[in-house]
Design brief:
Number of helices: 14
Structural class: alpha+beta
Helix content: 25-40%
């Protein structure tokens, strides 16, 4: 149903509500508490909503040095709240402790500072609980722990700038829409006067109908967005602008409860795809019920070590949190705060990493990306027939065509990665119906690859959109494709790992062609793969370095720096055996392996920067892929060394959650790994790396089509003696596996099996 929207020169009417431009109605402001340094943050997420606050649960309205720009309440790439600040008598409370352990909720315990003679320090306890479930809910319990009655004012200041997430990330805009104030409608043009509830401010005011307060904005595309705040339990005693104030009087050991709910609206309909509960209690119950359903569907993994179990449990919960609805499908968004959106490469790699955990993620990812597969030629979006998207955005800048993410297709590797996942999903599930349904999309993806191979024999990229990415592999920052002198590569770039993806896609898809009696395709793809392997080992190999080049540039010249990229090729079969072992050995050298993991770029490179996004940092997903490659070569000890470094790093992180990346500084004794300042957390393929590493150590090789699971030479690291898998799905069979280490040997037994799957354990 389309909302009733009427726009005149001076006011906007929307389903009985009236708004005017904010500049026509100045309001009093409540001072904010200035923070002098960047604040650590708490992050909570529910489907397409996420909230980033400081450890007090606040989003301050002001701070020095811009504070933390990622703070706010976001939905669909729009910030619906950029101030949420609790104060007591105009002062910041004193933090006692806080946590966002559950992922969809946060709790804060704080107390009062000394406020003149009327209120001694630490006499009032304040407990905040915030929950996301299609809306934001907060309940605040205020308790008096003194022996006498106390009186004070408690306030919460709200504000919303409704900026696009790309603006938050630093993208400039020439124009933006206008902030609005809701006012009382009249029969004539204009508005009525509404006095401030204190009686001290006599001019037009935003209306506060009973328990409601509304923040609003009209975008350049005409859409009206609102953050509608409904107060619960006890209503505020008065408002000053967008600050709600309660005059509290608490007897000794009395507790009072305050609360509110914030609904996010776009043209008077919910901005979130999740149906919001009415109360915080209902929201928590809904979240816990959905999470329990998720837990019942996944493989449950546990060990004999409690710290290791915390890492696994956190990864299981974070994958649940990162799932996001896109139409009728759910897949994993890339990461909070910057990449809470649909991505091609990130979603595909995460789905591959977690096939052992839940193949449904892969199925919905394949279906969703197939639905968006390129259907036309469009330079602005870099869309091409058969191409898989890079990134989909829903904010105002995308809707107004200021950025090409509607969706944007500027990625060279998502299309072969889609084909690889297509084959991997079938190996785990034998889901013939889905594979058959997606076969036309597989053909279109391969045709896109083949068209782009024609000129050079390699799959290359070069930016076509003026707002697109200069680099379009997984290392997509502007300064990362450098040669051994540190100079940037130019022209059409052919990345080494992308050629390995193409090789694997052709080899794997040839098997599907055989199943479908398309022997012409099967033979052609196999021959093309073999020819690609020959060319690749000739053109990419650096004889003087005994290593693989990062890429070929537009002139076909080697981009001859030492990077982690060739590690992605190890398990895909494109190297000759001797060259695969040479790459594996070089990656373990001190300039690459820093003790926590393998760096993205050698520390000997002139371009090396341990704080650089892709030029010296360490990425968990990069390392878990390399560990799979080491394992495939039989280099078990080397793979376990990488596993241990990544596990040790993760165990030091808040909530035992692997970050998107960390700085590349050398591991030094008992010193903790150095954090990358703006790394996403939780982040999808960092979380997925936990399961990919588990897959690596037990070495499961599924073949659901032939009703078989091979377990080849499982090897637990010395830090773990026992590892169990419950509810593991291969085809229609569900089974439990137990792994036990004794010295240097790991034994496996099938503890339980529901189905007729053949399990072959190979030592």
């Amino acid at each position: 149903m389309t909302p009733d929207l009427l726009i005149t020169q001076e006011k906007i009417s929307l389903d009985g509500k009236t708004f005017i431009p904010a500049e026509q109605l100045p309001i009093p402001e409540w001072p904010c508490v200035v923070s002098e340094r960047p604040q650590p943050t708490l992050t909570v997420k529910d489907d397409d909503l996420f909230l980033v606050t400081d450890t007090m649960g606040n989003i301050s309205g002001c701070s020095l040095n811009d504070g933390n720009p990622s703070m706010g309440l976001f939905c669909c790439d729009t910030r619906f709240l950029n101030r949420l600040e609790l104060q007591i008598e105009g002062r910041s409370p004193i933090l006692l402790g806080s946590t966002a352990e559950k992922g969809f909720s946060l709790t804060v315990l704080c107390t009062n500072p000394r406020i003149d003679e009327g209120l001694k320090a630490d006499n009032v306890g304040i407990r905040r609980e915030i929950v996301l479930n299609g809306a934001l809910f907060e309940e605040i319990e205020v308790s008096n722990y003194s022996t006498s009655t106390v009186s004070f004012e408690l306030s919460i200041s709200f504000d919303a700038d409704f900026v696009d997430l790309f603006e938050v990330r630093g993208y400039g805009r020439d124009q933006r829409g206008k902030l609005l104030r809701q006012v009382e409608p009249t029969h004539e043009e204009g508005t009525v006067l509404s006095g401030d509830r204190t009686g001290s401010f006599q001019t037009q005011q935003p209306i506060h109908k009973e328990e409601f307060l509304t923040l609003a904005y009209q975008g350049l595309d005409g859409l009206v967005m609102e953050s509608r705040i409904q107060f619960q339990h006890r209503l505020p005693d008065y408002f000053k602008g967008y600050t709600a104030v309660w005059k509290l009087e608490l007897a000794s050991h009395e507790t009072q409860k305050l609360g509110y709910r914030i609904n996010l609206l776009t043209n008077n309909t919910s901005s979130s795809t999740v149906s919001a509960a009415f109360t915080l209690g209902q929201a928590k119950a809904a979240e816990l019920m959905e999470e329990q359903h998720w837990v019942q569907q996944i493989t449950r993994i546990s060990s004999d070590k409690s710290l290791f179990n915390r890492v696994i449990d956190r990864a299981e919960q974070d994958l649940y949190l990162l799932r996001q609805s896109f139409g009728k499908y759910k897949t994993v968004s890339a990461g909070v705060p910057w990449f809470s959106a649909l991505f091609g490469r990130d979603s595909l790699i995460t789905a591959s990493q977690t096939l052992m955990l839940n193949p449904q993620i892969a199925k919905e990812t394949l279906m969703l990306l197939a639905a968006y597969q390129g259907k036309t030629e469009d330079d602005w979006r870099e869309e091409e027939l058969g191409k898989i998207l890079h990134e989909l955005r829903l904010g105002e800048m995308a809707r107004c065509q200021e950025i090409p993410h509607t969706p944007y297709y500027g990625t060279v590797d998502a299309t072969p990665l889609w084909l690889m996942l297509y084959a991997e999903y079938y190996a785990w599930t034998h889901d013939q119906e889905t594979v058959e349904q997606l076969w036309p999309h597989a053909l279109a993806a391969m045709e896109w690859i083949d068209r782009n191979l024609q000129e050079t024999g390699y799959l290359t990229y070069s930016r076509r959109s003026k707002r697109g990415l200069a680099n379009q592999g997984w290392k997509d920052s502007g300064d990362c494709i450098v040669d051994r002198k540190g100079d940037l590569a130019n022209g059409h770039i052919a990345l080494c790992e992308v050629q390995a993806y193409v090789y694997a896609a052709k080899m794997r898809l040839s098997e599907f062609a055989k199943m479908k009696k398309r022997l012409d395709l099967a033979d052609r793809w196999q021959e093309e793969a073999r020819n690609l392997k020959v060319r690749f080992n000739r053109d990419f190999w650096m004889e003087d370095q005994d290593f693989c080049a990062l890429a070929l540039d537009g002139d076909g010249k080697q981009v001859d720096s030492i990077t982690s990229n060739p590690g992605h090729c190890l398990h895909l079969g494109i190297f000759t055996p001797e060259r695969a072992y040479s790459v594996a050995e070089r990656l373990r050298a001190p300039d690459m392996f820093n003790g926590w993991g393998i760096r993205t770029l050698s520390s000997l490179s002139p371009a090396y920067n341990p704080m650089g996004y892709h030029i010296g940092s360490v990425w968990p997903h990069d390392n878990s892929i390399i560990a799979m490659g080491l394992r495939s070569l039989g280099l078990v000890d080397q793979a376990l060394e990488l596993f241990q470094g990544l596990f040790d790093m993760t165990s030091t992180q808040p909530y035992q959650r692997p970050p998107e990346l960390l700085c590349g500084y050398e591991r030094n004794g008992d010193h903790a790994p150095i954090q990358y300042p703006v790394a996403c957390t939780p982040q999808a393929w960092a979380t997925g790396s936990v399961f990919q590493l588990l897959q690596m150590i037990v070495n499961l090789v599924p073949d659901a089509q032939n009703n078989c699971l091979r377990i080849i030479d499982p090897a637990l690291p010395e830090s773990i003696n026992h590892l169990s898998f419950h509810n593991l799905r291969v085809g229609p069979t569900i089974l439990d596996l137990e792994f036990e280490r004794s010295g240097s040997t790991t034994a496996c037994r099938v503890a339980k099996k529901r189905g007729n799957l053949r399990v072959v354990i190979e030592a």
